[in-house]
Amino acid sequence: MNVLFDLFYTFFKIGLFTIGGGYAMIPLIEKEVVETHTWLTMEEFMDVLAIAEMTPGPIAVNTATFVGYRLAKIPGALIGTLGVILPSLIIITIIAAYFAHSNVPGLPRVKGAFLALRPAVVGLIASAVYKLGNRGIIDLRSGIVAAIVFGIFTYSGIHPIYILLLTGTLGALFFT
């Protein structure tokens, strides 16, 4: 099949069926990009996630852009990005138009759906952490780095970009 169509369809599905933002999308992106299509190895995928986290913009969009570029250069980057953002654009436009003229958010079943979706999103994010942790924490040193970064990020007001820049710099200096 056409690689551009595959890119668009794959990232459109990811954008359409993932609720909870970029981090909740990671398990589905990994499944599609690494397992289903084998566009990237798991190690390459983890590198892409690190880069996508450090660059401006949503992690899912950055990942779609990178994967698209890797497969089909500029057209692939554009198609992958369009595929992942188009479902959100369509859905939020419809919801905004409908919610503006109704009391849907106040309906008990809608409230119930959102109450159930919140822990589901947490579960998806936890799954991504578990899978990435199994591949990213490969020895005691990387485990210590992960624990320190977790502590700093959880208990301080330091912006994540500074933490990533610092750990990347220290890694380049001392982990070679």
Write the layout of secondary structure elements.
Layout: H1 3-17, H2 22-36, H3 42-54, H4 59-99, H5 108-136, H6 140-155, H7 160-174
Helix pairs in contact: 1-2, 1-4, 2-4, 2-5, 3-4
Structure description:
The protein has helices spanning 3-17, 22-36, 42-54, 59-99, 108-136, 140-155, 160-174. With 176 residues, the chain is mostly helical. The protein has a domain at 3-102. The longest helix has 41 residues, at 59-99. It is globular, with a radius of gyration of 18 Å.
Q: Characterize the main sheet.
A: none
Which oligomerization state do the chains in this entry correspond to? single chain
Low-confidence stretches: none
Number of strands: 0
How big is the Rg?
18 Å
Question: Which structural class do the helices and strands define?
Answer: mainly alpha
Number of helices: 7
Work out the strand percent: under 5%
Helix content: over 70%
Order of helices and strands: HHHHHHH
Distance between the termini: 41 Å
What would you call the shape? globular
Mean pLDDT figure: 88
Key traits:
82% helix; 7 helices; single chain; 176 residues
Summarize the structure.
The protein is mainly alpha-helical. The chain is built from seven helices and no strands.
